[in-house]
Every structure is written in C-alpha cells, then in structure tokens.
Write a structure and sequence with these properties.
This protein is of the alpha/beta class. It is built from 9 helices and 7 strands. It binds guanosine-5'-diphosphate and magnesium ion.
Length: about 210
C-alpha cells in the first residue's frame, strides 16, 4: 500500500517536471539541479562559477534548504534574480520549482542554478525537469559514496569532485570514484576541481558555457 502511494506521488511529480522542462525550453533557459551532501560545496560552486561567467551569461539562482536563507544571502552580492525555497522536507520537487519559477523575473535569463537540499538520497528520486543533474562529491566524504548512493550517481549527467586542494590530507581515491561512477553511468561527465583555490574550475565553466544557447 505504502509503495503504491509513493509511486503515485512520483508519477504526479514527473508530469509537473515535464511542464517545467517545457517552460525552460520555451524561455531558452539552461537549468542545472545541483545536488550533494551538506557541505560538499554546492553554494561555493555557484558562487565561483558566477564570478567567472556573470559578464557573459544572464543567470538566476534558486536555493532549496530545509530552513533559513543563508545561501541566498551568499548569492545576494551578485545582484541577480535569486529565490530561496524553505522546503521543510529533504528535497525539492517539481511543484516547488514551478511555484518558484512563477515568482521570479526570468526575462532574458539563459542559465538557472537550482541548489537542492543537501543529501544524496531524496533529491535523486524527485525529477525537477532540468536540463542537467549535477552531483558534487567532495574529497573528505570518502570514495565509497557512489556505491552507497548509486541512484544519485546514475541519474546525474555530471559529477564534480570538489575540494581537491585537500586531497593529500584525506583518504580519497579519485580514480576509484571515477571508475565506479562511470560503471553506474557510462555517460557521466566528470570534473575535478577546488572551489577554494580555483584549480580545475575553468574546465567546468568552459564546458558549461558550451552548453548554453545565448
Ligand atoms: N578546502 C576546501 N573547502 C571548500 C571547497 N569548496 C567549499 N569549501 C568549504 O566547504 C564548506 C561548505 O561549502 P558550501 O558551499 O556551503 O556547501 P553546500 O552545503 O554544499 O552548499 C564551506 O566552509 C566552504 O568554504 C574546496 O574546494 N576546498
Ligand atoms: Mg549551500
């Protein structure tokens, strides 16, 4: 019985996600769903990317957090359309996103970052209708995470390995993570970078820009 209820919820979510997808297509907005554990670097990646692309690409940001507005405040300095959703649940869903889209001025916007709630489980279950799902795994979290949370890594189009600046101090096997992620999802695109030192970020921003039709 419980399984049936969850199936229905996900079915309704999928239909709403399709509508979000149509909206993005119609408005020519490239949308990214950024997922990770708490603290892996979702907001840092958005901030560091904005620093490098804000002159060329009109961008907006939606931040989903269980509670509070801390992350939206960190984005505030860029003076771009930013909206915080307080989810009171462990993930964003397609309905929350569509409500947020109705409350933002997205005229002329070509790129939308959506920061999901921090965990590697629920956000993987709820499609949002975005162009790309991005998962960030940071080096202190351990190399076993793709095996522990396989759904997250199989539904993601991009894996960003963040915090490579502290690789020496943590027990993290980059090659093992890459090969496990590729086994789960042979199409996954992988970037290794540090939001702190900036190493590797240009590879990511160059690729991202190549995905956007301005
Ligand atoms: N050493 C190091 N710290 C980082 C890096 N990226 C983010 N951090 C730090 O990790 C913490 C969590 O980052 P945040 O962007 O808030 O993660 P979020 O919870 O996924 O949004 C902050 O203290 C960041 O300064 C990195 O590449 N290297
Ligand atoms: Mg954050």
């Amino acid at each position: 019985m419980e399984i049936k209820v969850l199936e229905n919820v996900l079915k309704v979510n999928e239909e709403l996600a399709r509508r979000n997808r149509d909206f993005f297509e119609k408005k020519n907005i490239h949308s990214l769903n950024i997922m990770s554990s708490p603290g892996a670097g979702k907001t840092s990646l958005i901030v560091e990317t904005l620093k490098r692309i804000k002159k060329d690409i009109k961008t907006a940001v939606i931040v989903g957090d269980y509670t509070g507005k801390i992350d939206a405040k960190r984005i505030g300095k860029f003076k771009i359309p930013t909206l915080q959703i307080e989810t009171a649940s462990c993930h964003l869903d397609a309905n929350m996103l569509s409500q947020a889209l109705k409350n933002m001025d997205l005229e002329k916007i070509n790129l939308l970052f959506i920061e999901n709630v921090g965990n590697l489980i629920c956000p993987a279950e709820y499609k949002l209708g975005v162009n790309k799902n991005i998962v960030i795994l940071s080096t202190p979290e351990g190399s076993d995470k793709p095996l522990k949370y396989p759904l997250m890594f199989s539904i993601s189009d991009v894996l960003i390995i963040n915090k490579i600046d502290i690789l020496e101090s943590v027990d993290f096997d980059i090659e093992k993570v890459k090969s496990t992620a590729l086994k789960l999802n042979p199409e996954i695109k992988i970037f290794s970078l540090s939001c702190k030192t900036g190493e590797g970020i240009d590879n990511w921003t160059i690729w991202l820009k190549s995905q956007i039709k301005v």
